[in-house]
Amino acid sequence: MVTVCPECGAEESRDVWDQVVGGRLAWGVSGRCPADPEHSAWESCGWDETPPDIRGELLERHGEHRLRVTPRPGWSRMRLLRALRGEDTPLAEVKDLASRVLAGEITGTEGEMDLLAHRIRPAGLDDAAERVS
Ligand SMILES: [Zn+2]
């Protein structure tokens, strides 16, 4: 995504990020004009649900990531299901998600994969996110 400075029309230098902070997903976007970097800097950020346009930009700039998990001895499918279970998620959906996690089929932004890894770690799984595109 290219955005321009509202003052002079120059192409802004722009960055987007997402990362896990205190067990939640934080996201942000910032920009500044190369002609006046000190006075033109702006930033916008938020928690949890990343706006679709920001999420698209994250995937475009930082790539799509896949989470690979390796069960450690003594890992527990029960604990994995519990870790993945949200407030009202039907059990069938949670089981399906667990299978996809174990098969390494879940992809998303780097921050989303970090968040998922953070949630499932107590179930006894080693994890690693890798860039796939
Ligand atoms: Zn400018």
What does this structure look like?
The chain is built from five helices and six strands. It has helices at residues 37-40, 52-62, 77-84, 91-102, 110-120; strands at residues 13-21, 24-32, 42-47, 65-71, 107-108, 125-131. The strands form two sheets. The chain has a three-stranded antiparallel β-sheet with strand order 1-2-3. Strands 5-4-6 form a three-stranded antiparallel β-sheet, covered by helices on one side. Strand 1 (13-21) and strand 2 (24-32) form a beta hairpin. Helix 3 crosses helix 4 (91-102). The relative contact order is 0.19. The model has no long low-confidence stretch (mean pLDDT 93). Zinc ion binds at residues 5, 7-8, 10, 33, 35-36, 40. Zinc ion binds next to loops.
* Rg over alpha carbons: 18 Å
Order of helices and strands: EEHEHEHHEHE
Total helical elements: 5
Give the tally of structural domains: 2
Rounded to the nearest angstrom, the distance between the terminal CA atoms is 17 Å
Main sheet: strands, sense, barrel: 3 strands, antiparallel
Low-confidence stretches: none
Strand order of the largest sheet: 1-2-3
Average pLDDT, rounded to a whole number, is 93
Let me know the number of strands: 6
Oligomer: single chain
| CATH level-3 fold name of the largest domain | Ribosomal Protein L30, Chain: A
| CATH class division of the largest domain | Alpha Beta
Helix content: 25-40%
The second-level CATH architecture of the largest domain is: 2-Layer Sandwich
Indicate the overall shape. Answer: elongated
Enumerate the distinct ligands: zinc ion
Percentage of residues in strands: 25-35%
Structural class: alpha+beta
